[in-house]
Records
---
Amino acid sequence: MKISQHGARICMIGKVTHFTIWIEIDLFKKLMINEA
């Protein structure tokens, strides 16, 4: 039970991290387009 909870926690952190990176890349692309 403890192992599955720990695995789920890592999965959630991974999803949040991936989503945050995707938002940062999207914002960066918009900034680059505006600068050009």
---
Amino acid sequence: MSSGKPLLPYHPTIQEFLHLDPNQEGVHHQIQDMSANSSSAYNFSLGSDLSNCSSSTLFSKPLTISINIARAILILPLAVIILHLACQRWKKRGSLTDASNCDIFTYHLAVMELLGNDCTIDLAFQSYNEAFSLLKVALITPLTFIILYMAYQRWKQQGSWTAESHCDVFTYHLAVMELFTILGTAATLLGYFSRFKIMVLVGMNFDAVPYSGETLFHDLTCVERYLAVVHPLTYRGLKTARGVRIRNVMIGCVWLLSFGWMLVRSLRSDSLQAWG
């Protein structure tokens, strides 16, 4: 039923776009029919497809909802607490110039988690997810390269990272994870607007790497800070060669789990199987 108002320009969702047959006549008519048959056709959710694998072609809805709720429960309170501590420190000292580089990076990461959380995006910015994805990449890219440049400078000065604090090393790996987010988002948007399906699939799989890895690195950072404050003797013991080996093993496990998640997503994607 037409309400008499002109429909907004319709863009197919990632799922709809991947299932359109480019060899079939009247692809544009398919898109127009989708728009006419849906009163909320323009409220598509590209951003959630890019960042958190919430595609119905990948997972069932209950599993997707459970993952997003668990992520929100774990990350949101932690991000709010970190920003509250930063605000308290700023009020007490008037600035954050005396804070360690690791603390500054942690504050910025907390802001990014608030910006990137699906619960925030899907509720408030559902119609503007492409713009949000571009804004997120624009904000993350400079900070990521600054962190990696500082890591490179320290490596040149010291010859290795064995003397680095565990928190700093976790931050460097988080920055590398963000590179996958940048590349994945760029590839997905480029493929989406150029109607190139394979590029969309590659970008979505790239973006799956930091989905679990970032959360795990945040967890390791929290454990490291907890040991430093509550169990200082145990924390000093982790600064030895044995502690460095344990840290490297945990980092390797995080990367394996991250790439494993990407592989699972690739195998379970109906769209990817259609290209086989």
